[in-house]
Amino acid sequence: MIEFLAGRDVRDRAKALFSDFGDKLRDIAVHSEAIDPSLEIEINEAAGLRDALRALLTPVMSRTERDSVASGDPLAGTQFLAAEPIAEDFQIYRHLADSFPEDVRYEALPYWSSVPLPA
User: Which end of the chain has fewer CB atoms at under 10 Å, N or C?
Assistant: First the structure.
């Protein structure tokens, strides 16, 4: 779909960023129980990858998915909340991913990203 909407270069870049973002989140989840100062660095790197994905894909996202929709309709825009991730967030993600059957475990990350908290 991304290739159709934005071309092969954007698709390839998005694929690499999604892969790196997923790897980063899995790395964070693996180390979330440790009290390690490098965990904050990992979290910041994940945020940078997320922001790069957002910047890359905003031009091809539907109107209601874009943060910029608020420029035309302030009531329709995304309201961002100040919520820095903590180690417990990644422990919960790991628990969620482990609850998925092995053959569909790859679906845990998109599911996690689509809802505020796992059910």
Answer: C
Amino acid at 64: T
Global model pTM greater than 0.90: no
Please say whether the beta carbons of 94 and 112 come within 8 A.
no
Per-residue exposure over 34-44, b if at least 16 CB sit within 10 Å of its own CB, e if not: eeeeebeebbe
Pairwise pLDDT comparison (60 vs 54), residue with the higher score: 54
pLDDT of residue 118: 43
62 phi/psi in degrees, rounded to 5: -65, 160
**CA-CA distance, 3 to 5, in Å (whole number)?**
6
Task: Give Cβ neighbours of residue 11 (< 8 Å, ≥ 6 apart).
Answer: 2, 3
Q: What is the 3-state secondary structure (H, E, C) of 13-52?
A: HHHHHHHHHHHHHHHHHHCCCCCCCHHHHHHHHHHHHHHH
Q: Which two tokens stand for residue 28?
A: 């964070």
* 75: its two tokens: 């009531």
